[in-house]
Structures are given as structure tokens and as C-alpha cells.
Amino acid sequence: MIKCVKVYRRYASNVLALLKKHGLLNREYKVSHDKEYVYMPVIQGSDDEIRVVLRDFEYELVDCLPEKRRKHRDYGYIPSYDLLGDVVVVRENVLENISREQLVNTILDLHPNIKAIYIKEKTIDEFRLPKLKLLWGVEVGSVVVKEYGLLFKIMLGKVYYNKRLSEEHRRISIISGENEKIIDLFSGIGGFPIHIASMHKAFILANDLNPYAFVSIIDNILLNKKKLIGNIAVTRIDAREFTNFPSLKEYFDRLIANLPHKSIEYMYVYDYLLRKNGILHLYIIGKNLEDLLERISKYSDKWVLEKAAKVLDYAPYTYIYRVDLIKR
Ligand SMILES: C[S@@+](CC[C@H](N)C(=O)[O-])C[C@H]1O[C@@H](n2cnc3c(N)ncnc32)[C@H](O)[C@@H]1O
């Protein structure tokens, strides 16, 4: 039988700290409580030591049946994962280092209230959709995540979302200006436009060809409408088609092109839409900046480098860069 130190709730934090400090807390079991008391499982045979350590407190040593802790620390490996609302998404390659059972136990130990754990098997087709397979829990259609106080609904498996881009959304919104006309050609669920509109009285055109992304941008504008001071218009057309709108020729001050695998194929579209001295934020995959600039220069000599930064790791020695270019 396990023994627990039973103390009034008002003493609990001090008593717990002392038991931990003296190595008397039995960490294999969970601390529990009722309305009046807290029950702290202690190491067997430590009654004398407890008496000395807790001499200033009113307590009882009682038999108890505490719940056992899951022991993720014993696995020696905590995989990388994304917590999206009440869902965890883990990349498939993580299963090379940990069994499915250990993975589930570890994640549940860290996040006991989640509804599902999904394995992301791959990213598919031009919409960059994650192929998700349920590993544990119940199927969840959508989750809501927070980025800098803004809310984003994500339809799992139906839209692209990467929580590691939240800082980038913020960075671009900080450098955007008041009253700018901005176009985000590959908007996903609206991360860049909504961040920008929350900071500036700008006009932003948010476009994405994926019908679920299009609906998500609208949902997310509505979710955040009280926080938005800028205006966002939403379209769902192939980015190439923008060259068919003469009224948009050289209309925009800033253009966001976040389609890293293919963004370079649309250089003529950016040229068409941006005014002279307009800024292009080109997200592109590469090993180093020199190589990228050479690739860009092959498309046109119109672009002058303003700045570049690594945004995300993509593969060993390969990164997603943001290259900021000014149109001559
Ligand atoms: C990398 S994701 C964008 C992520 C988004 N900017 C963010 O910050 O979360 C690329 C997006 O481009 C969209 N897309 C792909 N090809 C397209 C095209 N030809 N025209 C418009 N959108 C396209 C995809 O549906 C996808 O949502």
C-alpha cells in the first residue's frame, strides 16, 4: 500500500516543496486532492524523515491509492510535434525512433486533454495539403489556434498550415506600411493578411486557389473582425490569372509570394502586379543565398536585393528563405 502525506490545502505548496527538496515525494504517482486536503504520495519507509522535515506542519500519514504517472521521461526521447488546439500532429519519420505506443503515451503524458494524435505522412499536391492519419483519439474536423492573440480556424487535412510561420506573419506585418496596397498570392488560411490588417489600415488582397483555404480566410477574417483595422478582399483564382486584369497592373505596393517550391515560376506575375519600387517578399527553397540570387536573376534583371533571411529549415543544409526584392 502506498502512503500519502495528507495536509490541508493551505499548506500544500510548502509541504510539496519540502517533500521534493528532501527527495521524499514518490514521483511514480500523482498528487491528488479533495475539497479540504491534498494527498502527496511519499517514498516507502521514510516516515521518520518525514516527521523531521514536516515538523512545523499539521499533517497525517495515510494509506492511499494514488493514480500512477505515465513515465515519458524514462523513454529518453521526446519527439518533435505540433500542438494545434486540442490536436497533436507528429511527422511520420518520428516513428523511426519511437514505437507507436511510446509515442502515444509520451504525448498524452505531456498533453492529457488532447482529443487526437495524427501522423503526418506527407504533403500532397499543389495545395500543399498534409496527409493525416489518426494514431490515437477521435477524428477532429477543425481546430482553432492562436497567433499573437489572433485566432485561426484550420480544417485539418484540407488546408496548408504551419505554426512555425506565425513569427514570419508578424515580421511582415511589422514592416508593412499604413495605407499600403498589398497582395498575398498564396494566402493559405490568411495568416499574412490578417496579421497585417490587425496592425495597419492597409488594403490587402488575399488569394488562394484551394477552395477550403478560400473559405478559411473568410472564416478567419470573421473570427478576428474586432481586431482588424485594415480591409481584406478575398479571391480564389490561379495566381497566373492575375495577369488578365489590366486594372491590377502595377497596382500593388507589396506582394507576398509564399509558395516556396514554385514561387520562382511566377516572377512575371509579380512583375505585372507590383508598381515600380514595390516590394516582393519571395519565399523560396535553397542551400544558400548566392545560389538563389543567381536563379532569380535568370528570370529577370528587374529585381534589386533589399534583404534576405532564413525563415525555416527545410532539409539538411537546405532552407526556406525570404528574399526581399525591390522592383526597378
Ligand atoms: C505554403 S502555402 C501558403 C501558406 C500561407 N502563406 C501561410 O502563411 O500560412 C501555399 C498556398 O498556395 C496555394 N496555391 C498553390 N498553387 C496556387 C496557385 N497557382 N494560385 C493560387 N494559390 C495557389 C495553396 O493552396 C497553399 O494554400
UniProtKB/TrEMBL annotation:
GO terms under biological process: tRNA N1-guanine methylation
One function term, GO molecular function aspect: tRNA methyltransferase activity
Coiled coil regions, renumbered to chain: none
Superkingdom of this protein's organism: Archaea
Keyword list, A-Z: Cytoplasm, Methyltransferase, S-adenosyl-L-methionine, Transferase, tRNA processing
Pfam families referenced in this protein's UniProt entry, alphabetically: TRM5-TYW2_MTfase, Trm5_N, TYW2_N_2
Cellular component per GO, a single term: cytoplasm
PROSITE patterns: SAM_MT_TRM5_TYW2
Name of the protein in question: SAM-dependent methyltransferase TRM5/TYW2-type domain-containing protein
Domain SAM-dependent methyltransferase TRM5/TYW2-type: 81-328
Organism: Staphylothermus hellenicus (strain DSM 12710 / JCM 10830 / BK20S6-10-b1 / P8)
